[in-house]
């Protein structure tokens, strides 16, 4: 691949990242990405033979961003419970602040397709959560508990974005719901 080809490939992904942030997943058509990148509608096919491959490349950027945030969040260490709390908060803030990207990242067809190894990008993030859960609850099946917690976080993000949890709880802060979810999956905090 020449430098121009590499530059166009990156530009197409950049345009897709900007487009999903501004207009959501439904706006991510090959034609619209090409138009905004200033190339013919057939040009993206040179780098991404299928639409799924381009969407996967865009989603990979989202996983990279989330991974960077997770690493920053966990860089200071701390006890595993505090780390899971901060990791969960980071996850919810990412989901709520990037709803289009978040939706794209967890599309089953992209993860299942294997394009660009998205599972290989997403599973290590889940592994971090499972490891921390295992340190908090050593006798439990850490993968299952982490999976249930992740599903709960995903539900909180979705319901919060829709405004449903605010109506149901009468709160404008997701922290109490998050704390309740963490207690349900990890047990109560010591001293409580």
SS field, number of helical segments: 11
The main pleated sheet reads as:
none
How far apart are the termini?
59 Å
Strand content: under 5%
- The stretches of 5 or more residues where confidence is low (pLDDT under 50) are none
Give the C-alpha Rg: 19 Å
Class based on secondary structure composition and strand pairing: mainly alpha
Helix content: over 70%
Task: Give a summary of the structure in a few sentences.
With about 190 residues, the protein is mainly α. It has 11 helices and no strands.
Strand and helix layout:
Blueprint (H helix, E strand, L loop, with lengths): L2 H21 L6 H8 L6 H4 L3 H24 L5 H18 L1 H7 L2 H6 L4 H19 L5 H21 L1 H6 L5 H12 L6
Helix pairs in contact: 1-2, 1-4, 1-6, 4-5, 4-6, 4-8, 5-6, 5-8, 5-9, 5-11, 8-9, 9-11
Textual characterization of the structure:
By secondary structure, the chain is mostly helical. The chain is 76% helix and 0% strand. Helix 1 (3-23) packs across helix 2 (30-37), helix 1 (3-23) packs across helix 4 (51-74) and helix 4 runs parallel beside helix 8. The radius of gyration is 19 Å and the shape is elongated. The termini are far apart.
Structural features:
single chain; 192 residues; mainly alpha; 76% helix; 0% strand
């Amino acid at each position: 691949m020449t430098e121009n080809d590499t530059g166009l490939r990156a530009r197409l992904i950049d345009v897709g990242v900007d487009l999903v942030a501004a207009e959501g997943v439904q706006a991510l058509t090959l034609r619209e990405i090409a138009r905004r990148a200033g190339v013919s509608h057939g040009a993206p096919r040179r780098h991404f033979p299928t639409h799924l491959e381009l969407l996967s490349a865009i989603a990979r950027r989202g996983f990279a961003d989330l991974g960077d945030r997770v690493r920053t969040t966990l860089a200071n260490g701390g006890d595993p419970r505090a780390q899971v709390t901060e990791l969960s908060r980071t996850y919810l803030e990412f989901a709520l602040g990037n709803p289009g990207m978040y939706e794209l990242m967890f599309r089953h067809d992209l993860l299942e397709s294997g394009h660009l190894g998205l599972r290989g990008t997403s599973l290590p993030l889940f592994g971090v959560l499972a490891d921390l859960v295992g340190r908090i609850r050593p006798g439990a099946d850490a993968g299952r508990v982490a999976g249930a917690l992740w599903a709960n976080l995903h539900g909180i993000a979705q319901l919060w974005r829709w405004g449903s949890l605010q109506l149901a709880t009468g709160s404008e802060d997701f922290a109490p719901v998050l704390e309740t979810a963490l207690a349900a999956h990890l047990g109560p905090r010591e001293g409580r």
